[in-house]
Design goal:
Order of helices and strands: EHEEEEHE
Number of helices: 2
Strand content: 35-45%
Number of strands: 6
Largest sheet: 6 strands, mixed
Structural class: mainly beta
Helix content: 10-25%
Distance between the termini: 6 Å
Strand order of the largest sheet: 2-5-4-3-1-6
Length: 113
Amino acid sequence: MPVVILLAIPKLYRDHMSDVELYEATRGTWEVSEEGRQAELAMAVSKGIVREVYRIKRWCPAGTLVYQIRKFKFPIDSSLWEFEGEVAIDVRDQYVDQPAPVRNYGEIAYMNI
């Protein structure tokens, strides 16, 4: 069973975001434990709805990866992480535009699917 990390992006999400904007809002930056960095999938969640699902390729210390659009205030906290990934085409249709499978959590939640 793949482990999924649900990432709440309410401050960054807006309707009609481009694919790149949504990806960059979702992939960084997060306070994620070593165990959390074992997740295979990441779900972008806003207003209780899954907006996209990404297959995580790797986690990197925050500030490592290049962003095309999103800007950060530097320096970035060295305890934070960001992931590199791609849309999880094989499972996204099951979850995108559906209620998040986990309710009432803070910025991050985990589950198995």
